[in-house]
Amino acid sequence: MEENENKIELLITYLKSLGFEGEKLERDIRDACKQYPTSFSVSHRMRFGEEQMSYYFYFLLDTQFHAYKLDNYTAVHRDPIIIEHKVINGIDTNKLEQRMREIDWEDLSLHVVNREEFDHLLSNTYPLLMENLSRLTEDYLFDGLEIRNQLIYKYWPGKFWDYEVQELAEVYETDQQFISNEFGIPNASLAYHTVSGHLYELLDQLRAYGLERLPGIDLKNYLEHCLSTGSRIFDITCSTPRQEGIIDYDVRLIGFDGPFTPEPLVATFTRYPEFSHGIYNEVDTQILEEDAKRINWADPDALFTAGEHGDAVIRPPIEDILSKMRKLCDSGNVEAATYIDMKYISQTNELYEFIPGDINALEANLPRVSARFPLDLNLDTRAIYNMMCGRTVKEEKQESMDTWLLLKSGNEEDLNELHIQKVKGMTEGEIQDRLDMLPLRSANDYSIRQSIMKGNVQKVELLDGKHIVIGMVSDATALEVYTADMEHIPFNFKFDPNWLPEHIEGNTKRKDQAKRLTKSVMKGKGYKK
Description:
The chain is of the alpha+beta class and 529 residues long. Among the domains are: 273-365; 426-518, no CATH class. Strands 7, 8, 9, 10 and 15 form a 5-stranded antiparallel beta sheet that branches. A hairpin with a 2-residue loop joins β17 (403-411) and β18 (414-424). The radius of gyration is 33 Å and the shape is flat.
């Protein structure tokens, strides 16, 4: 007897770990187990804000262990029932619903088996409430019948619904069965988000950021995992090295008493340390970077091989790169070694213990900037990256013909916290007008101006086969043109007879931007091909 009780406790504990708990659920399970049937079913209700989930569990007796196990359950989601309250036949339906909301209908109907008994019970226990429900249907008023059915559907247990009320289930309810397998079974939260469609709504929201385009991101699987933990707050985080630095993305999701909703994405950008390729302590950094590019750092099999005794041994090409990085550090060229580490080796955690401490110290002290990007701006990770690098991105709202977005420090107290500002700049048509002035091989190419509006520095081909690079200035008022090697090409787009190249050369703001753009792009050829 005691052994059976312990097995029932284990079953209840297992259900609690899935997020299913309540006095009625425990009582129903204990009552069912007393009969020791080969199988049994119980139901459980949970509210998520104005939404409701009903879970119908099916348990089987495991004859090997003489214990019950959850074989499957059907989850039924009910959409919020929003009643347009009125006064009908003298009945204030809003007050009537408030009264019905106060009643524990599950407990009230615990020992009632049919509708006739239920009506009799209510007529004796809540005569005024029953009278008011009846008066709503007098004179066969459509509004009265509709509200009466909605109230009964919303609060009464389903086994007491009449045919008209049952029809509402087809409008408000969605169901799905979940079966236990070797991976377990979805918990209450994951089933709620799946059956209700909130999981896919959340995916659509997050996909606007373009996170799935980043290496190693399986957004759906990650969300399903997080929703299965039972936590009410979790973060989606990822980090990716780009041409000019490492950018970290963090989206916090919060779900209290309802579906999870995303907070604005927080991006943190760390620019690579500045250095010039050359030969230092017999290490050619240009060749070293080419060697690092050829390695798939995210694949452990590309980094290690099995040793004589089955232990992991670093592969020779990896050891050669690490050895050269140590030589760079020994000669005082920590910046070059840190660049290689951040841009390439940071894609794995397997080699952290082999990285010289000087590199970790320099990386930890590099300046970082961060900014928040609300979903409604419809910016993906590529546009966000460009903004974090100091470039300007066009706002995508239809009414914002000439509005651009850039990041600036909010105050002197925290220069590392950037804030989005809107500026007036060129329209898409004006950009195309400027592009039409250039002898481009791909005339009227939609993708070129779209790339520029996303903040990219765009490489294009001229009619004579040469290549130039086009980018937007930081205030979004003009295009800048460069050679493929990022030498500035003065171009008089306005055909101003008084314009001279020296005007741009003497413009300190323009010179500073051109200098920064050239430095960041030339470091990794970071233009859009």
